[in-house]
Amino acid sequence: MASRVTRSASKATAKAASPPASPAKRPRPTSSSSSTAKAGSLGPPATPKRTKVQHSKVPDSPYVPPTPGTEQKIHEWVESAEKEGEKEGAVLLHPELTFKFEDAREHLAQVDPRWRTVMDQLPCKPFQGEQKEPFNPFRSLVTSLLGQQISWLAARSITHKFVRLFFPHLPEKLPPAGSTEPKLETPFPTPHQVLDLPDRTAALRGAGLSGRKVEYVVELAERFADGRLEAKKLWAMNDDELMETLVAVRGIGRWTVEMFLIFAAKRPDVLPCGDLGIQKNLCKWFSQDPSYAPSIHPRKLAGASPTKLASSESAQGRNESESPQKPSRSEKAGSKSQEEEVADAPATVPSERAHEGEGAGIGKLGAMGGAAVEQELVLDLDRPDEGVKQEDEAGDDDKDDAKEVEFVFPETSNNLTPAILRSRLNGKKLKGNIYMTPGEMEEMTAAWSPYRSVACWYLWSITDGTGDP
Question: Do 283 and 382 belong together in one domain?
Fold first, then answer.
């Protein structure tokens, strides 16, 4: 028993035989943690609190209108840039339209008398009157590229910054949107000017262009500079040739070319089937009774952008908030790759957006120079149920006195009816979140041909427009 060693005794013996542990070194206090060390803390030094710097917001500089002398100088720059662009083949001065607006007016009015009422109220700026604007495809296409995937206000600002890279003496800012200041005509760089820009990529990025848009603009300038694209040749092409030629350029999709055909090349018979605003407005136009006369929004009559039709309800400040701003890219038909969607995204062209109190009653419409249209004959295309006759509410005497107008509805292969179109406006859209298929749009507007571009311009002007065409 005496020789037996317990486990606890063995542990005690081993502990006594082991050398003593060296004491742990304390961290030397730094100047920033001396107060902590003095307090006896053995932890890491405390991180000093950062003081938040208060930056005072610099107010935006106000718009400074150019002086008469500056305006004259800008006008000279415009003429010089156009002449230089013509030498490079990027501009065609004084092109002649391939049709007469009066022929289009009479044709559409014969098909549907409502067109005459609309055209009496609002001149068709792209096609009516003497053609004075030069054909500048480089400017039109670059502007479209700069405006892709952003709001029209942002596109307007970036385009102006882009132009000032080449004409730095232009006013720093454009007049505020909706102001009464006259539109400032500005020059536009030629393709060679873009290619010769010092430190080109950094300069273009500094103007607000994304890396992808810089690539698009540079490639487009190269095509004009080496002769693959030329204004005179583009003007002479037919619509199909123009479409094939331009969609081969990176960043340019079908929708962009359709807008180019209407607003730059002034082609009379273009139907942009992929434009959701046109789809929706066609539904509205054909789902209503033609005995009602559409009216133009007073803001459009006053020369500002966009419009909804006049109605007593819209006078109360009704707004429509179905879709986000741009040309409702999320509602485009079909599936596209990301690059195709970027290429096809509308820039400053009108589409579906939410508006706050854009409408105005017929009294205000008349006061602002609108056509004299009686209240009961004003059709609001933003109300799917308006324009449908309520026969039960009218007395027999009213029926006898009322002017009977037969609703001439286009025949389609799938037997569309006004009721079907109204149901789509009320939420029952087609697959792909669209209002009408391209085939339906072609059949519904067949009688408008060969002047569908003119009709589409007015459709943008009377409903859902958000940019000045």
Answer: yes
Give the total number of structural domains in the chain. Answer: 2
Locate 384 and state its tokens.
């799917």
**Which helix (DSSP H) or strand (DSSP E) does residue 452 occupy?**
helix 452-462
What is the model's pTM? 0.67
Distance CA 110, CA 447 (A): 10
How confident is the model over 112-157, as pLDDT tens digits?
988 988 888 888 888 887 777 899 999 999 999 999 988 888 999 9
- Domain co-membership, 282 together with 187: no
**Does 333 map to a domain?**
yes
Structural domain ending residue among the three candidates 207, 241, 263: 263
Helix (H, G, I), strand (E, B) or coil at 92: strand
Phi, psi of 379 (to 5 degrees): -105, 125
pLDDT for 306 beyond 70: no
Residue range(s) defining the domain that contains residue 168: 78-95+134-263
Taking the C-alpha atoms of residue 259 and residue 256, their distance in angstroms, rounded to an integer, is 5
Please name the residue that has the structure tokens 């009422």: 117
Measured torsion, CA atoms of residues 229, 235, 238, 241, in degrees rounded to the nearest 10:
10
Q: What is the pLDDT of residue 416?
A: 94
Residues 184 and 88 in one domain: yes
